[in-house]
Amino acid sequence: MKIYINADSIVTPLGFGTQENLAALCSYRSALSWHESSDVASGPMMMAEFNDHAIRLESKILNLESQYTKFERLVIMAVNDVLNQTHTDIADPSVGFIISTTKGNSVLIDHTAESQDGRVSLWKTSDRIGRYFGAANRPIIVSNACISGVSALIVGKRLIEAGVYGSVIVAGCDVLTHFITSGFKSFKSLSTKRCVPFDGRRDGLNLGEGAGAVLLSPNYDENSILLAGGCISNDANHISGPSRTGYELNLAIRGAMSEAGVQPADISFTDTHGTATVYNDEMESKAVTLAGLQNLPVQSLKPYFGHTLGASGIIETIVCAHELRMGTIFGTMGFEKPGTPMPIKVSAEHQRVKKMHHCVKTASGFGGCNAAIVLSVPQYAKTQSEPAPVKLRSIRTASVFGSQIKVGKRIVFSSKSSEFGVFIREAFKKLGDDNMKFYKMDNLCKLGYVTAGYLLNGLQFAPEEMGIVLMNSYGSLDTDLDHEKIISEQGDAMASPAVFVYTLPNVVIGEICIRYQIKGENTFFVNEGHETERTMKYIEKAMEKTNLHYCIFGWCDLIGDKYRAAFSLIENTEYNGNIGAGAGTEGSDTSNSK
Amino acid sequence: MEELIEKLKGELIAELNLEETTPADIDAEAPLFGDGGLGLDSIDALEIILILERNYGIKIENPAQGKEIFYSVKTLAEYITANQKK
Description:
The structure holds two protein chains of two kinds. By secondary structure, chain A is of the alpha/beta class. Chain A has a domain at about 390-570: Thiolase/Chalcone synthase (Peroxisomal Thiolase, Chain A, domain 1). Helices cover about 30% and strands about 25% of the residues of chain A. Chain B has a single domain (about 1-85), classed as Non-ribosomal Peptide Synthetase Peptidyl Carrier Protein, Chain A (Orthogonal Bundle), CATH 1.10.1200. Helices cover about 50% and strands about 0% of the residues of chain B.
């Protein structure tokens, strides 16, 4: 089954709708500007922020009432635009809806409130947006740090392939708030100038805001672009620092190319994450080289949009699809002097290239996650080899409830204390684990880390043959409140990087991946409930497509003194032992049966 | 200097969540980062920058600058002594 991108919309400070944004890029216009002061940051900042007046005007056109937050409005604008371009009836139960975001309505987080505004919760926000459209399905939230957008496209594709939906609307959005700007500032990762990805002068990223949306479906017309392959990996190295080798992003790129049936020589260009931090770009230059794409054009769109976080994967993918159609590779504006350890082909100027057939889009994020997809012009699509069939069974379970841990039905640990801090520390010690980093984790990570420890106890596997898919209902709210408390009581400048890094729920996956050396699929969903059936179908597709032997499937939720974890270890009993999705494609022609 | 070194050890243990580590466990001249020593990482380095700012009024804008300053508790104490304003 082939899945196509059939309609798209980009909403950024550069314009409302894809065409306005493309026109801006064609004339080298950037959404980034210097803000001496603003409502979303303390002190001056180079960023891509919406003009409130423009949003109000656009809201008026759509009759969007003030009850909707800026985040919700931007998602609604992008999705509305996509629905208007197609004959999709979102009230039809066969139409799925996915939203990717890192922080959603973070502006509403308030540690002084007795209970949080319902809209803080990502699944409740998604519910509001779903109800606005009268959608049959409540939007699924993918919160996978900065790969969220690319992740969500892969999730949408796989859910259609798995037969869960006939078509899927995938939207991505993030808006700038003090919460976000103070956190990135504490990481010293912001540049005061317009970012210059891959350049020797690069000294950090710029934050941006925006939304993007697409319709994915098996139908196509002359404007469709094929979403030919997708793969997600984890560095299993550090929760905030990128891999030193680029090997794992390379695995995701190879996995995506393998699914698409393409070889490096078929690729016209690679659109990277390209944030312009020293280490990200360094890692990407290595990954692009390992994947065999170093002699082909490489671009970053961050100098135009800034880093739009959970929206970036969607917005940038849409631009890539249009680049393939237009025969243009947009320049990485401002690039002058190569500055990455591995030489890659970056150009500041737009290039006209005739007959482009395929491109690669990548993303990398906190928690060590990487994602890559391949887009193809439909008439040049390669024949994809049929993946081997999978047969899944749950071979172990581990659960944490109250102050007990069960493996299967057996209680393997119980504490006299019901206080989480005491209980989890005792449970950790019982594991015989001497990882001192445990004490630096936030409570959500401690819960997931310990549960995974009891689940995996003694199991042998290769890094690439294990994946992990987790979900919960509170996201990272427990630590979000800590970060918000620090900046509201002590000021933005006192934001703690060791707290902020845990304001992304998928970092718990990152901690587990580092400890147990897991480098395969990793995705974090935020749902009201377990959604077991749908998620298992997703996992089955992910295991089939990326050739996994095992996958951890788990619920991991914590807020205040309430916590609950239930993990299941899924085995593919048909696993053929050819480790990983990208393995075997190097220098071989066998995956491409023209 | 000795007094400052002991104070710093306490601050590092508390702020960097170095549980099960006592001031006596920390060798003032051993490397703080990398394998051996305390095994601190890049996030810890950013937290130390915050400690310097909050407790000693010393600003370090460029984290790369921290490499020599943060080598050990002793180098940290020497830098604070030379630059302290608070």
